[in-house]
């Protein structure tokens, strides 16, 4: 079951239908589970809620998929918990987890899972998929939830990506037989040393034979579909803001952001407390310098216990260009070092030819640079005016752009293994 929280439609014979991409909720006047969750969602998204009679409606709670079917969840053993009002909220199919409702003006509502994963990037979704695969192999049924701060999967994924498929071969061996957004194999691999106006070819230290030039955000969306098919519950549009501890300081889950908070911190009329997502196991796959991961490391002194070195960071800036077809070579990969960065600044650039006449060009600059006046954005503009790069981009059009931070520390900055900190956060992505 996947809830597209910010693209809902309330459906009935009397209420207006709002547009949606994936699901609509059927309104009833029964007292369904999740009523507190839907109140939370509708308040956050400021959706209109209609009070209606149930004479003409099916009173069975249901969520209706519009684009694809999901595995039917098991009946919920806990009773439906009534709320003392006559307002009709969208209803959902019950699941196997128990839910608690409390006075929402003071307390959070909570949902219980076996595993809660924070972050729907490649690491978080792969972990969820593998857990569900192991459940099927061992005839065990565990509830797995993934929380993602982006409004949709892939919304916060930026990567100029040459993809090595070995991990995907192990996770989903039949992926090549499916409609997966991995279709441009590497056709050439170059490595240049740039000066202000020249480019010198170097022996390439990379081995990209058998790899693919892809859009990582598109791959994440596809992984989300595979996770849904296995029964993983994905909650996009909700940022995890707090680690939950029990009385023994054991991690028992996370809480999402409060909604309806003004810039000055005051509570608006639409204020709603976040939801507690409790799990026996909590996996943090937040990416670079995740807020909850940083909190865990500080609370348990993870770096000090293993004498890990300090993490180092870089800033990556990327644009996607649409260029002339005569200049486009699908699968061509170029990496550069040198200009526009000086010899004291760690970094380099990349240029990947994707499909549909698109080229991904970017610059990565380590944030430990010595020159206080260095501006990574301005260095990126210089790069695009290098004769070898300008020749390719001239006459083209920028269709996408973005930036993100990267971990550069490597294995020497890893923390103790008492906690599961996935992939990018610990700086071990390939």
TrEMBL record:
It catalyses: a ubiquinone + reduced [electron-transfer flavoprotein] = a ubiquinol + oxidized [electron-transfer flavoprotein] + H(+). GO terms for cellular component: mitochondrial inner membrane. SUPFAM superfamilies: FAD/NAD(P)-binding domain. Its EC number is 1.5.5.1. The keyword Electron transport applies. Gene3D superfamilies: 3.30.9.90, FAD/NAD(P)-binding domain. Binds 1 [4Fe-4S] cluster. The keyword Electron transport applies. Keywords: Electron transport, FAD, Flavoprotein, Iron, Iron-sulfur, Metal-binding, Oxidoreductase, Transport, Ubiquinone. Residues 313-406 form the ETF-QO/FixC ubiquinone-binding domain. It is an enzyme of class 1 (oxidoreductase). It comes from the Eukaryota. Its cofactor is FAD; [4Fe-4S] cluster. GO terms for molecular function: 4 iron, 4 sulfur cluster binding; electron-transferring-flavoprotein dehydrogenase activity; metal ion binding. Accepts electrons from ETF and reduces ubiquinone. PANTHER family: ELECTRON TRANSFER FLAVOPROTEIN-UBIQUINONE OXIDOREDUCTASE, ELECTRON TRANSFER FLAVOPROTEIN-UBIQUINONE OXIDOREDUCTASE, MITOCHONDRIAL. This is Electron transfer flavoprotein-ubiquinone oxidoreductase. It comes from Aquilegia coerulea. The lineage of its organism: Eukaryota, Viridiplantae, Streptophyta, Embryophyta, Tracheophyta.
């Amino acid at each position: 079951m996947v809830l597209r929280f910010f693209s809902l439609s309330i459906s009935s014979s009397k209420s207006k239908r709002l547009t949606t991409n994936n699901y609509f909720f059927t309104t009833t006047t029964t007292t369904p589970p999740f009523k507190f969750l839907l109140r939370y969602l509708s308040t956050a998204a400021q959706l209109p809620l209609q009070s209606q009679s149930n004479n003409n409606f099916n009173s069975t709670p249901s969520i209706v998929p519009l684009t694809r079917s999901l595995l039917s969840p098991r009946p919920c053993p806990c009773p439906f918990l009534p709320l003392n009002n006559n307002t009709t909220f969208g209803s959902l199919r019950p699941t196997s987890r128990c839910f608690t409702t409390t006075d929402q003006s003071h307390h959070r509502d909570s949902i219980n899972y076996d595993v809660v994963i924070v972050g729907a990037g490649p690491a978080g979704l792969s972990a969820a998929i593998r857990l569900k695969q192991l459940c099927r192999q061992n005839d065990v049924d565990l509830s797995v939830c993934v929380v993602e701060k982006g409004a949709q999967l892939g919304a916060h994924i930026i990567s100029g990506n040459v993809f090595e498929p070995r991990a995907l071969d192990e996770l989903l061996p039949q992926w090549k037989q499916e409609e997966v957004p991995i279709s441009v194999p590497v056709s050439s691999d170059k490595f240049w040393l740039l000066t202000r106006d020249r480019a010198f070819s170097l022996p390439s230290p990379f081995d990209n034979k058998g790899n693919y030039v892809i859009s990582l955000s598109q791959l994440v969306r596809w992984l989300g579909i595979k996770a849904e098919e296995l029964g993983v519950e994905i909650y996009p549009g909700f940022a995890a803001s707090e680690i939950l501890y029990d009385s023994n300081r054991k991690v028992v889950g996370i809480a999402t952001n409060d909604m309806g908070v003004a810039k000055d911190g005051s509570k608006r009329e639409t204020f709603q407390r976040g939801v507690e997502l409790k799990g026996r196991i909590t996996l943090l796959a937040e990416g670079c310098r995740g807020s909850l991961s940083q909190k865990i490391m500080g609370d348990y002194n993870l770096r000090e216990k293993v004498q890990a070195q300090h993490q180092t960071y870089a800033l990556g800036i990327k644009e996607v260009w649409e260029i002339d077809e005569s200049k486009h070579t699908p699968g061509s990969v170029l990496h550069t070092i040198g200009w526009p960065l000086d010899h004291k600044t760690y970094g380099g650039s990349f240029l990947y030819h994707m499909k549909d006449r698109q080229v991904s060009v970017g610059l990565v600059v380590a944030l430990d640079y010595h020159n206080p006046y260095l501006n990574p954005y301005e260095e990126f503009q210089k790069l695009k005016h290098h004769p070898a790069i300008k020749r390719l981009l001239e006459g083209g059009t920028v269709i996408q752009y973005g930036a993100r931070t990267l971990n550069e520390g490597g294995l020497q900055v890893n923390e103790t293994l008492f906690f599961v900190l996935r992939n990018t956060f610990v700086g071990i992505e390939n």
